[in-house]
Amino acid sequence: MRIADLTFEPLIDEETIAKRINLLSEELNADYEGKTPIFIGVLTGSFLFVADLIKQITIPCEVTFTKVASYFGSTNTSHKIREDIDLSFDISGRHIVIIEDIVDTGNTINYLLAKLKQYNPASISVCSLLLKPGKLELSIEELHYVGFEIENEFVVGYGLDYKELGRNLKAIYRLVSSGDPTM
Ligand code: 5GP
Ligand code: MG
Ligand code: MG
């Protein structure tokens, strides 16, 4: 499949994603019973994951979004993080679950965790659909829920973009031979 100037091939199909999300939601329903958690989706990449996950949450909960971005239209991580965080909602004393599309180096989630901790939540954990263990630069203690561990490869689909394209794809695709030595 061609997206802009690059070629991608299937990695995780729709049914596999749905089954994994069912299991993650069962874990969350059990772990947060009686806690009325606030699920905070990190825009834009997590929007489909949040929607599908939250439909399977059966305990009382709140859902909101925030925005942080570290990639600027390429397949490479930059360590620049745009400060675009909306924290107008009150999280003090609350149980927070951050929902991410993917944890790559871990810098974005680390930054967001540090910001949120300043508001004294009762607890904070991270639920990421994807994780690239081989690219993690920091250990993220709060990363309690991971959908799939993947190789050091660039992926698109199911909310994740390449040059803002491909977010609408129902499955997840990986870049075919990037030719980019830094990936
Ligand atoms: P980190 O700060 O962990 O290196 O990067 C996290 C962010 O970079 C993710 O939330 C996502 O927006 C973007 N990112 C990292 N890896 C990929 C990837 O393989 N594909 C896409 N589309 N975005 C990625
Ligand atoms: Mg993200
Ligand atoms: Mg992106």
From TrEMBL:
<dbReference type="GO" id="GO:0000166">
    <property type="term" value="F:nucleotide binding"/>
</dbReference>
<dbReference type="Pfam" id="PF00156">
    <property type="entry name" value="Pribosyltran"/>
</dbReference>
<keyword id="KW-0460">Magnesium</keyword>
<feature type="domain" description="Phosphoribosyltransferase">
    <location>
        <begin position="15"/>
        <end position="163"/>
    </location>
</feature>
<dbReference type="GO" id="GO:0006178">
    <property type="term" value="P:guanine salvage"/>
</dbReference>
<keyword id="KW-0479">Metal-binding</keyword>
<dbReference type="GO" id="GO:0032264">
    <property type="term" value="P:IMP salvage"/>
</dbReference>
<dbReference type="GO" id="GO:0005829">
    <property type="term" value="C:cytosol"/>
</dbReference>
<comment type="similarity">
    <text>Belongs to the purine/pyrimidine phosphoribosyltransferase family.</text>
</comment>
<dbReference type="GO" id="GO:0046100">
    <property type="term" value="P:hypoxanthine metabolic process"/>
</dbReference>
<keyword id="KW-0328">Glycosyltransferase</keyword>
<dbReference type="GO" id="GO:0006166">
    <property type="term" value="P:purine ribonucleoside salvage"/>
</dbReference>
<dbReference type="InterPro" id="IPR000836">
    <property type="entry name" value="PRTase_dom"/>
</dbReference>
<keyword id="KW-0660">Purine salvage</keyword>
<dbReference type="GO" id="GO:0000287">
    <property type="term" value="F:magnesium ion binding"/>
</dbReference>
<keyword id="KW-0963">Cytoplasm</keyword>
<keyword id="KW-0808">Transferase</keyword>
<protein>
    <recommendedName>
        <fullName>Hypoxanthine phosphoribosyltransferase</fullName>
        <ecNumber>2.4.2.8</ecNumber>
    </recommendedName>
</protein>
<dbReference type="InterPro" id="IPR050408">
    <property type="entry name" value="HGPRT"/>
</dbReference>
<keyword id="KW-0547">Nucleotide-binding</keyword>
<dbReference type="GO" id="GO:0004422">
    <property type="term" value="F:hypoxanthine phosphoribosyltransferase activity"/>
</dbReference>
<dbReference type="GO" id="GO:0032263">
    <property type="term" value="P:GMP salvage"/>
</dbReference>
<comment type="pathway">
    <text>Purine metabolism; IMP biosynthesis via salvage pathway; IMP from hypoxanthine: step 1/1.</text>
</comment>
<dbReference type="InterPro" id="IPR029057">
    <property type="entry name" value="PRTase-like"/>
</dbReference>
<dbReference type="InterPro" id="IPR005904">
    <property type="entry name" value="Hxn_phspho_trans"/>
</dbReference>
